[in-house]
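Our collaborator T.R. sent over the components below with a one-line note: 'Predict the complex.' Nothing else. No constraints on interfaces, no templates requested, no preferences about which chain binds where. So this is a plain run: every listed entity goes in together, and whatever single assembly comes back becomes the starting point for the next discussion.
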Amino acid sequence: MALQSCVNIKKEWDIVGARQMGRDIAREMGFGTVDQARIATAISELARNIYLYAGSGKVCFEKIDTIEKRGMCMIATDAGPGIVDIGQVMEDGFTTSSGLGAGLPGVRRLMDEFDIKSAKNVGTEIKAIKWLR
Amino acid sequence: MRIPILKLHNYLLISIQTEIDDNTAIQFQEDLLSKIHQSGSSGVVIDLTSVEIIDSFIAKVLGDVVTMSDLMGAKVVLTGIQPAVAMTLIDLGIHLQNVPTALNLEQGLSRLHQELGE
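Returned assembly:
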């Protein structure tokens, strides 16, 4: 596991900062333009969730470089209210804000692996990986 | 940051060249509607050739501005959506079904000509 880079999400503009950094890392790693767009969009969705629901948090990136597989991992963490019903937020069309409800199910489709941990009043951690093909 | 809106005869032309954050998108929505009102334009082309990312929020703002302009009586066409952006939007589950689109600015303008019968 290589070095981690993180972006703190505190203000709205940090959403743009996070997706730019993620896109740069993806490009450096050799992801094609479509996967770069998928990764950047997924980051944008995760960062916006942090900003909207938790107020602040961070998005970190890790390069995964093993003999079998190479890929990019993103971890979005916040100490916000947490998600009570994870099953519900993973349903297409569910939203508590003014978005399109594309949020988390969309992120899962954009990435190859997706894992979510959340506890009420403790916070949420979402980990997603895109593998280099 | 504000997105420039250019007037050309009866039309308004917008080319989005910068990374759009949420505030810029909302500001653009307001600016475009007041520009339509002021200028009495009947057609609008929003060119997205240089846009590399459209996430669910930006997609919602764009979809809404098309519907809002329609309510006011102006037709909006989105042009130049890149392949990577189209694929990402579908992955996200965003279909923008009632939004008129065209491959590029030129075809967007001809589409407006046809639809508005000018």
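Summary for T.R.: Chain A has one domain: 4-131.
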